[in-house]
Amino acid sequence: MKVIAPSYTVIDKLDSVQLLKKMEAAGRVCWKSEGNATDESYATFLTKILSRGHESVVEHVNISVRFICDRGITHNIVRHRIASYSMESTRYCNYSHNKFGNEVTFIRPYYWNTDSELYELWEKHMIIAEKTYLEMIELGATPEEARSVLPHSLKSEIVVTMNLRQWRNFFKQRAAKTAHPQIRELALPLLVEFREMLPIIFGDIIIDDEAEVLIKLNK
């Protein structure tokens, strides 16, 4: 059995200025103000239209992110419907094969210390789940049959592509205090990265003090 921390990777190599200029060019069509564009006008233009709630303009740019997280958290992610998803399939992935190390991988729940009773109890049941899964495969069960014993903590990978408007919605929901702690564990540092890449688009999404602490814990 393997236990790992969740993680993410921004797949796209972004030229933030070119992306912002693309959105400005699209937005100026609405007012036929293309002639007012300059090398630096995108910042003022986009800040103004976002402050007025005209977020459709930022739908013209997509960003793809690869998440490694537990299976339960993928169910949070795919509730964002204006997006494209490619996800690791437990129906076809056979974790008894060499390419998976002949073992099942689980995501570490960050809210329990590894020396706590709760973590030890969790770990015990992950071991049982892996053992049962591998025994079922050995007895002739297919991966899609044996997966029925695998828990939410199963490691999964999902590539998510959203336009920038939907990413804004994602962060407003998944980086909020009311979100599930394990989705916040991914959403908060990703929001920090998006704010650094595209501060004009994501700089207005507030990160509270508690969130700052969580980000530091997971760096």
Task: Give an account of the 3D structure.
The protein has 219 residues and is α+β, with helices and mostly antiparallel strands. It has nine helices and six strands. It has helices at 16-31, 41-51, 71-77, 117-138, 143-146, 164-174, 181-197, 199-202, 209-217; strands at 2-4, 7-10, 62-70, 83-87, 105-107, 155-163. The strands form two sheets. The chain has a four-stranded antiparallel sheet with strand order 2-3-6-4. The chain is elongated. The model has no long low-confidence stretch (mean pLDDT 93).
Low-confidence stretches: none
Radius of gyration: 21 Å
User: Average pLDDT value?
Assistant: 93
* Order of helix and strand elements from N to C terminus: EEHHEHEEHHEHHHH
Query: Tally of extended strands?
Result: 6
Strand content range: 15-25%
How would you sum up the major sheet?
Answer: 4 strands, antiparallel
For the biggest β-sheet, the strand order reads 2-3-6-4
Distance between the termini: 24 Å
Shape label: elongated
Structural class: alpha+beta
Helix content: 40-55%
Number of helices: 9
Layout of secondary structure:
Elements: E1 2-4, E2 7-10, H1 16-31, H2 41-51, E3 62-70, H3 71-77, E4 83-87, E5 105-107, H4 117-138, H5 143-146, E6 155-163, H6 164-174, H7 181-197, H8 199-202, H9 209-217
Helix pairs in contact: 1-2, 7-9
Summarize the structure.
Helix content is 46%, strand content 15%.
Features:
alpha+beta; 219 residues; two-stranded parallel ribbon
